[in-house]
Design goal:
Elements: H1 4-18, E1 23-28, E2 34-36, H2 40-47, E3 54-58, E4 61-65, E5 69-74, E6 79-84, E7 94-100, E8 105-110, E9 116-121, H3 145-153, H4 159-164, H5 174-184, H6 197-216, E10 257-261, E11 264-268
Parallel strand pairs: 2-9
Antiparallel strand pairs: 1-7, 3-4, 4-5, 5-9, 6-8, 7-8, 10-11
The chain binds a DNA duplex through residues 1, 32, 60, 74, 76-78, 110-116, 129-130, 154-157, 161, 164, 166, 173-174, 262-265.
Length: 279
DNA sequence: GGAGTTGTTGTACC
DNA sequence: GGGTACAACAACTC
């Protein structure tokens, strides 16, 4: 379940491997991955002859910049890219293969088949779903405290739900939201508008610092995540609450609790993250 | 075979 | 019409 730090790591390792490669052909084993254009044969024809010029990221999306198009890819829970020689045996969970003129292949692998690909003309990627309504991610200049503070103050939703809302801040998922709230000492069921300025600042800084620290460690490896070179991230050693249910809190020793918030598994230290009576 | 897993989209509602 | 809640959905593992 890659979130921003894992997607950033994948993008960076993949960039070295695919840049300047020209797509000779595209083989699609599971057409449902391709959301735009509707016609997968058109998808294939558009990509033939295009060269990878650059890679980018917005929130949890990877952007492959080609000559005339941008391929927008979301890995959802288990999507992976690998670059292989063509004689490598094709795994049954490989769904899209970009065969390049130098003989190597960029393969998209996804056990769950939940991932998506959208192909746009260059320059049009941000005016259509899925990128059109995304908020800033924590690394962008316009993710300012002032912006964040106003967004938090104008909604009564649970703070955890707000942090998961990609229109407010993009790139955060279940793991990092739980960690950010723990570090800020804020209970996930707090109403966003009721938070103090100090708490909002603490969460804001946590978004930037936690994500930055996770990127520096190559992301978090739980279950199956590895980068495009098959390496695991190391941030899982820095998790305080996610996946720590029934373990003692590293700050106070109380047992970490697992609960549901908005249907999502949520990890909380009942002592460090007090829920107040007026929340 | 039912529950658990997750992020996004569509829809109904106020 | 904006904000919100929630169901639906994708498909696989245990």
């Amino acid at each position: 379940m890659p979130e921003l730090p894992e997607v950033e790591t994948i993008k960076n390792t993949l960039k070295e491997l695919v840049i300047d490669k020209e797509i000779q052909d595209v083989t699609i084993h599971w057409p449902n991955i391709i959301k735009k254009p509707d016609d997968t044969e058109l998808f294939r024809m558009m990509l033939k002859g295009q060269t990878f010029r650059d890679l980018g990221r917005k929130g949890k999306f990877i952007l492959f910049y080609l000559d005339d198009y941008v391929l927008v890819s979301h890995l959802r829970m288990e999507g992976k890219y690998q670059v292989t020689p063509p004689d490598d045996p094709v795994d049954k969970h490989t769904h899209v293969i970009f065969s390049c003129t130098d003989g190597e292949e960029l393969r998209y692998h996804d056990v769950r088949k939940f991932g998506t690909m959208h192909l746009f003309l260059k320059g049009e990627e941000f005016i259509h779903p899925p990128l059109n309504k995304l908020g800033p991610d924590p690394f962008e200049n316009h993710f300012t405290f002032d912006y964040f503070y106003k967004k938090m103050k104008k909604t009564d939703r649970f703070v955890k739900i707000v942090l998961l809302d990609q229109a407010i801040v993009s790139g955060l998922g279940n793991i990092y939201v739980d960690e950010i709230l723990f570090k800020a000492g804020v209970h996930p069921l707090s109403r966003a508008s009721k938070l103090t300025k100090k708490e909002i600042r603490s969460i804001y800084e946590g978004c930037i610092e936690t994500i930055d620290a996770a990127v520096k460690l190559g992301g978090t490896t739980i279950r199956s995540y590895v980068n495009s070179q098959g390496e695991m991230g190391m941030f899982q050693q820095n998790l305080f609450v996610y996946g720590q249910e029934d373990e003692p809190c590293q700050h106070c020793g109380q047992l970490i609790l697992k609960m549901k918030v908005g249907g999502r598994g949520t990890h909380v230290c009942p002592a460090c993250q007090k829920k107040r009576w007026y929340d």
